Q: What sequence folds into this?
């Protein structure tokens, strides 16, 4: 499981850097400032959670089942939250109406909050 978490964190981090560069250099020509700022939010949260997964992989005091739950919440949350933000921020470049996926952003955010809450409760309940 640890290897899988490190790989996912490294991949998400790599993709967030690629998307960040893509937004800063290529999309700048085509998107409004507000759309670029929205795109950047997706990049930022993806990177935060890539680092969160790398942190999670170092924890030896959390049960495997809990680690797996947090991992699944984070990966699903990033896909829904950042993924939907990327699509919504770039909707002016396509003909597809991405408004039908607008529910994905708050759902993804909720999953990320739950992942952090599971970590908090798990550590809080541990006796030092």
A:
């Amino acid at each position: 499981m640890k290897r899988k978490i490190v790989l996912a964190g490294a991949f998400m981090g790599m993709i967030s850097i690629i998307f960040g560069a893509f937004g800063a250099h290529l999309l700048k020509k085509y998107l409004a400032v507000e759309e670029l700022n929205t795109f950047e939010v997706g990049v930022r949260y993806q990177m935060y959670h890539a680092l969160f997964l790398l942190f999670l992989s170092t924890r030896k005091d959390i049960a495997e089942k809990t680690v797996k739950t947090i991992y699944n919440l984070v990966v699903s949350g990033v896909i829904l939250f950042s993924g939907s933000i990327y699509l919504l921020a770039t909707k002016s470049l396509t003909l597809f109406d991405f408004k039908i996926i607008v529910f994905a952003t708050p759902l993804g955010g909720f999953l990320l909050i739950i992942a952090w809450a599971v970590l908090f409760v798990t550590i809080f309940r541990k006796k030092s």
User: Anything to note?
Assistant: Residues 2-125 form one domain. The chain has a mean pLDDT of 92. The chain is about 75% helix and 0% strand.
